[in-house]
Amino acid sequence: MGRYLLKRLLQAVVVWWATITIAFVMLKLTPGDPFSTERALSPQVLAQLEAHYGLDQPAWVQYLRYFEGLFHGDFGPSYTSTRSVNEILGQTLPVSLELGAWALLVALAIGLGAGTAAALKHNRWPDYTVMSFAMLGICLPTFVLGPIFQLLFGVQWRLLPVSGWFAADHRILPAITLGLVYGAIIARVTRGGMLEVLSQDFLKTARAKGLPPMEILLRHTLRGGLLPTVSYLGPAIAGIVSGSFVIETIFQIPGLGRQFVQAALNRDLTLVLGTVTVYATLITLANLLVDLAVAWLDPRVRSHHA
Amino acid sequence: MPEQVPPTEKLPPPGRSYWGDAWSRLARNRLALISLWVLVGITLFCVVGPWLRGYGFNDQDYARVFADPSGAFPFGTDDLGRDQMVRIMVGGRVSLGIGLTATAVTLIIGVLYGAVAGYAGGRLGALMMRLVDVLYAMPFTIFVIMLLTFFGRNMWLLFVAIGAVEWLTMARMVYGQVRSLKERDFVLAARMLGQPWYRIVWRHLLPNVLGVIVVYATLTVPSVILLESFLSFLGLGVQAPRPSWGSLIKFGADQMTTSPHLLIIPALFFSVTLFCLNFLGDGLRDALDPQSRRD
Amino acid sequence: MRRRCRTAWCCLCLGLLVWLTGCGEREAPVERAAKEGILLMDIGTEPKTLDPQLATGQPAHRVITALFEGLVIPHPQRDGVVLPGVADTWEHNEDASVWTFHIRENARWSDGRSVTASDFVRSYHRMLTPELGADFATMLYRLENAEAYHRGEIDDFREVGVRALDAHTLQLRLIGPTPYFLTMLNHYAWYPVPVQLIESEGGLTDRSGDWLQPGTIVSNGPFVMEEWKPNSRIRVRKNPNYWDHAAVALEGIDFMPIEDSNTAVRMFDGGELHIASTVPSAVFEQRVAQDDPHLRMGQQLGTYYYLLNVNQPPLDDVRVRQALSLAIDRGVIVEQVTRGGERPAHRFVPDGFRDYDYQGPVHFDPERARALLAEAGYPQGQGFPPLTLTYNTLEGHQRIGEAITHMWQEQLGIRVELQNMEWKTFLERKDQGDFQIGRSGWIADYYDPLTFLEIMISESGNNDSGWENADYDAWIAQAMREGDMAQRNQEMGEAESILMEDMPLIPIYFYSRRWLQDERVQGWHHKMLDNHPYQFVSLRTSD
Prior knowledge:
The complex is a heterotrimer. By secondary structure, chain B is an all-alpha fold. Chain B has helices at residues 15-28, 30-52, 84-120, 122-136, 140-150, 155-181, 185-192, 197-234, 245-254, 261-288, 290-294. Chain C contains 17 helices and 19 strands. In chain C, strand 4 (87-92) and strand 5 (98-103) form a beta hairpin. Chains A and B meet through helix 1, helix 5, helix 6, helix 7 and helix 8 of A and helix 4, helix 5, helix 6, helix 8 and helix 9 of B.
């Protein structure tokens, strides 16, 4: 196990390096510079700014310098903000993680419950109802769902705040909006996986043996049937953590996703690289956990690693 | 815990009769059939409609802006007085086109890649999946901005760009499935019989993961269509004045309190299409996997 | 099992019901804040910095005017009129080229230190230090030798026209007669900054802005910073050391950066904002129809225009440029497309500057447009090379572009492709002259027509059209040094008529300003420059 983890850690380092390098090269090739605004800067000011941030150096020097800073845990200054990248990440990451955790909770609660229920009542009305709702969740883009929730709960009934990220009640609407989409997908994937398992012969044997249905569900079906769901959790976590840009904009949440898109559009190289590194780490971590979970759920894969 | 009973060994699908069987099973599934016809109807509506409708998708008339649905304009008009019906038709062409093309790209790259990585396993498989991880962690926005600024705003490029991003998830799902399948008896048996790897992947592994692939592909089409709308949101989507369902819905969402029909009608087309795609996907899944139908 | 499920559902529904009715009586944040004297307002996007010498853009402006105060402050109601700020009196010499400001004795920084004349000198020194890289350093070029110092042509700052005659007397020597100088001073580039503090927190030319953090920052305005949560909230509270703190009615302000104006409107409707600073045009129309008492609107000093690249054929032909302009029915654009109270542009400088109000020559005349196009060699648009109209991605720009290219097609028979671009790419293309027709807009920095006209002179960095005209440059140079206001308006008018004759840009409309204002807010008036001195704002509670 220890060796396995070490190997994964090494892989993670490669992932980080490659991610940062590709992002760096791409950003250097993309037109536009961080300091341009509608109001033109005088050439002197621009030269000063570039010298200040070391942008007058050749690209490979900048590249090496970036890694030098990274080695000391310094993500460098943000080009477009007065705060350092470390500071920005320190402020926005916890917010995104919290939002992501709530959303994942919502997604899992809805997805697993609905998916299992639908699979057990395959092709009967609960199946259709649940799947129709799941479809609705997938079909409605968050930029439609979010405003509808705001209008209903915030403006019409004044039950919940429209947007912001201050008190506990500010968490509810964004978590549900973000979680619903993934909940709907999880419901579908779970249903698919469960049906796959339910149709297999060993379950028929178990049923023929007269085992109670609850036990069949918990001991035999869930374990195998959840495999696709667990595999999907990797992308789902990545999507929830990094894809929350629209939600964060609509609900005014000071999270990483909004910061990342702003940085990318502003060509704020250090901030983009910083966020990308954080994403790479999070996603690597999520994938590791998912792989471990898959190994635990599927004995055949487990034996492969041991 | 009682011994887990392994699934019966699957016989290699015997050519025509397997697909023939699948078709006849699909034909018996009423819901899937209805979905198929509705999809055909919507596609025809979008493809043929603009020629029959008397208006172009960019014919502006300021005398009739924000008109409510009526006889002359069944779906109303938008803020420039353009016929919303023809815009939905043309938008459907664009969105369905993107959805299908990008999903095809996704399927081809993702399934092949995932299956090969999963079957190869070991160091090569791990390496291939690490590459997917790297691409996963890439800043997608930058990637697309770059592509579209360097190579110009080409609609086909957009399809490919989206497909190139979406294949990652597909590859990962297939990888996971294949990896757990390849240790199963029927695969081992095939290997023992000395069948070449590509034949095992193609004939034994892929048919078994087809269910997951089909389900996921039916989910990819809508997510691609949504992605296109997100790109329109960033200004990198389909070039105005050409509409897409995504951009129509986005525009409608901004007017939802003032002209709700601008949101509801395109959203309805969008949702019905997705509903049908999913029912069809389910039907296909059942049809392609004989076992799940038997109970 | 089925029964258990049903019970669980019932419990869940009941629980939801109890919760829904239980928290139904939420007190609206606007009401609660009004009782505490806290103004809740949105500022658009998150300001990149609040350093008055590095900041750009309206969001930063809104916060900076709460934190800092210049020599003079804007009038709460009237544009182009100033009230005493840090300086209580001032005088100038006969031709208004040397100004002397008397700084009030009781002007204090929030740490209790006096605001002195040398604070201004050192602030302007910092602003003009090339290493700082301040965007708005050019605003200070009005000062004698400031430009030379900023360009590194002279090294001795004492040659620059700013001097502290004593602790409370500041003398500013300008490059020429500037009768409108006071309105320029309203711009935050002229505000004092706590130089001592900045020096100890990273140095004068450090852009990192450590000194701006709550707890560290020292400011001299009616409010001090209490909290700065990026992308979430900037909270300022009353400054007890402010010289006029007794007159400040508000206890504090919460500024919220809200990028999506639809969200801001929903927050306003949900009782979470006292002021929503922009209203999307669709919502605007609806509120006008409903006679919403919260809706406010007025003119804004800004022009929306299309910049033409005069180096690109066929746009190098003035007849083509004129034809494109004459074929645009601007009445239709503002009434049918933008629909937010904008006014059709008849010249480049927007209406609203006192004494600079004449009817410009820009108008709609499709007959004449067709004739000019035919003269240029393209009758009915035949043989007209394909052109591209580039705009940065935004729904509004897209709609206007769709409408105008449609008009060109209808009136002139020419095809113009639309091309949207992501903002930074768009800026770079424009800067490099790699465009044909580019969407543009300009908002006044200060209350004078020059803020518009000066961007089209040959050496201006903002003139991306490639258009150069020696006569135009000469008129503008003359107007910059003209002491007589009437004469000056004349000169600017001459310059503008050259501009509209040559048409390197096509003015389309003058901006308007629309916002939502809670009935509790008092003393907040329409200002064309959108500069609101918060010390005159108060909140009324409903009971």
